[in-house]
Each structure stands twice: as C-alpha cells, then as structure tokens.
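Repro:
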Amino acid sequence: MPNDLSPTPNRLTRAGYCGFAAVLAFWLGACSTAPAAPESAQPRGDTPATVQPPPAPATPPTKPTVTPLQASPAAPPVVLNAETPSAPDLVSALLSYADRLQALSPSDLAAEIVVQGDPGTVPLRQMQLALALTHLRQPAETARALGLLQRVIGHTGPESLPLKPLARVLANRLMDQRKLEENVDRQAQQLRESQRRIDQLNERLEAMRAIERSLTTRPPATPRPNAP
C-alpha cells in the first residue's frame, strides 16, 4: 500500500504552533533592538565628541542711569570781630545815618562834621565823615570825601570788608560828581571871561558914544568979520 502523504491533524497543529512562535520571537527581537544613532553623531576614531554649549540668553537692554548733580558747597562766611556788627546791620546803619544827614540844615551839617573830627584809621568813622562831606556839595569837600572812601577801599583789615562794596559805589558816584563839578567850573570860568570881554567892549562903545555926543553938542563956530 502506498504511503499516505496528506498531513494529519496533529502535524498541522504542531506546525502552526512552531510558525506562530517564530513570528512572535522575531517581532520581540525587532522591538528590543535600539535604533541606530545617525552617522553624524557617531564619534570618529578615538577623538571624543565636542559638545557645543547652549547659547547664552540675551541680556535685556540696560536703562541709562541719571546721576543728580550735587551743588557745590557755599563758601563759608567771613568771620568778623565780635565788636563789629554783621554786614547788613552795618550797612543799614550807614544808610540811616545818610538819611539823617539829608534832613540837616547847612549849619547843623557843619556842626556834625566838626563833631566827627579826625576819623583816624577806623573804616566806619571814615565812611561817616565821607557821607557828611558829600552833603556839602562843594568841590573841595567832595575831593576830601573821595580820599576817605579810597582809604576804606584800600584797608586790609577784616572790619572793612562789609564796607567796601558801599565805599566803591560812593567813590564812583563822587568821581562822576567831580567830573561834573569840573565841567561846571570850566564853563563858569569861560562865562566870566566872556562877560569880561563883553564889559570891555561895552566900555569902549560907551566911550565912542561919549565922543560922538560931545561933537554934536559943540556950538558952531562964528564966522569972522571981513576986514574993511
């Protein structure tokens, strides 16, 4: 009897199990294999791969800082002697004194100048006498007052410091006043000279008129009688 080549049910079952087991093993092996890294990331030879550091974050723009300006310290005030009053009080006292001089009569003003006397080297007394002399409005007294003010300006002591600004103002005013007085004196002298010449001309003219009058009032000469 020839051999029966048709598969039996048991053989078919074992063959199906073996095929399913082979497919399952191949699928599990494929899943467990890690994917290969790209070629560019593979290190070449023994040289280690260089890792590039991440880029630094961009710094925000800084706002400009404004530094406030500090005011320069004020210069310390000049310390005067304890006997000398402060500058505003001293100048105010001199202005009040000048206002009082304005109300004096010429005789009282002359008496005040006598009371002041010689101021010596004291700047305050020099200023007082100069103020009194300026109220006389005379060229000689104006020159004297200007000399006193210049002495105050040239004084080197600390007691003259508050007086120097006022002394400079008064000195400039007196120099202008002296120029005006000199111009007035010059014009007055020219006027006197012109008046003198006018008087001389008037005298000559009057003399000529007198001569003319004497000629017109002389009686006419009587004719001489003819000889027989």
